[in-house]
């Protein structure tokens, strides 16, 4: 059972949320992600992709704050998704020292930079804002351990792909995990860039 080998805090959160058993996706993907491999998680809506992202990211960071540079990134399609995911992360990080930060595109970029410099463990952002932060030297990526892309299907239908490519070129020695409903050819092509030797978990 994948839940048995998670950090004790996460097991408590799951128990309090009355989540006793992993979904088919979680059962197959959590051990694969914990292995450190790059992973494509392909599954339909409501199969537990976002919960998988939360659990594996927090487990990777051992549910505790370290340093000041982000150690995990979650890219999402738009600002509304970023704010929604932030609220979900907060539920899972209560009673931990982890610092979750959303790069709200409605805020001035200089404010985002200054707040990130104060110390962040998990950064939630759109590709556009994260790329802008990197261009303005407002983000240190040297400590990144895991880079997630939530509902990555959006990369097949807008201009975020170019921002993503620029972002990943500045990142080294990091695990990449991509969640999507379908394995589009556009997503598959990322294997030639930052998703090298990726494993695919498909439900």
Structure description:
InterPro entries: DEAD/DEAH_box_helicase_dom, Helicase_ATP-bd, P-loop_NTPase. Keywords: ATP-binding, Helicase, Hydrolase, Nucleotide-binding. This is DEAD/DEAH box helicase. It holds the Pfam family DEAD. GO terms for molecular function: ATP binding; helicase activity; nucleic acid binding. The chain is α/β, with parallel strands linked by helices and 203 residues long. It has a domain of 131 residues: P-loop containing nucleotide triphosphate hydrolases (Rossmann fold, 3-Layer(aba) Sandwich). 39% of the residues lie in helices and 14% in strands. The chain has eight helices and seven strands. It has a seven-stranded parallel sheet. The longest helix has 15 residues. The model has no long low-confidence stretch (mean pLDDT 94).
